[in-house]
Amino acid sequence: EVLLQQSGAELVRPGSSVKISCKASGYTFTDYYMHWVKQRPEQGLVWIGRINPANGNTVYAEKFKSKATLTADKSSNTAYMQLSSLTSEDTATYFCTRSGSLDYWGQGVMVTVSS
Amino acid sequence: DIQLTQSPSSMSASLGDRVSLTCQSSQGIGNYLSWYQHKPGKPPKPMIYYATNLADGVPSRFSGSRSGSDYSLTISSLESEDTAIYYCLQYDEYPFTFGSGTKLEIK
Q1: What is the C-alpha separation between A51 and A98, in angstroms, rounded?
Q2: Contact B94/A59, CB-based, under 8 Å?
């Protein structure tokens, strides 16, 4: 069974960074890209970017190029997303999801940016 | 970037109704379009992939179709559990883009 298990909710201060994780199981981690999606409260879904776990190659949506950094650890089958210089606009739920057609999703991580 | 325009933005229908949601692409994306059902507090659930293919475990009352750059998700007989927001996604080219969603409610 394919599972994407994400880390727990985060409460972080404005201006800080946060790193959230997504541990994959039930398939060969390096065979599928891992994507990340953002959903702000009461808003729609936004694609952030994706990483190829096999070689670390990344593609980002333009607005996230200086906000998000995607990495992957093949030894632990875990993908990570670091968000930097956090503001209230980054308060959202973040999902990891597997390529090709985003067929499996993590449960989501709620990140709250507040002083 | 490719824009996906979903319509209507919200709708209300009765149990047993046939319901169709649409998603129009600003550029050609072939069949690289998926539909997701999203309920509060849960991750989006894949319903249709490659425009017309039913995802695993999805009831057969759901179907997807394509006419040119217009894509549709149809529910043949609406059930109460179908209340949700439905999003389309194009995965033909980067950046992937989602439609703005259709909120479906039961009358």
Answers
A1: 10
A2: yes
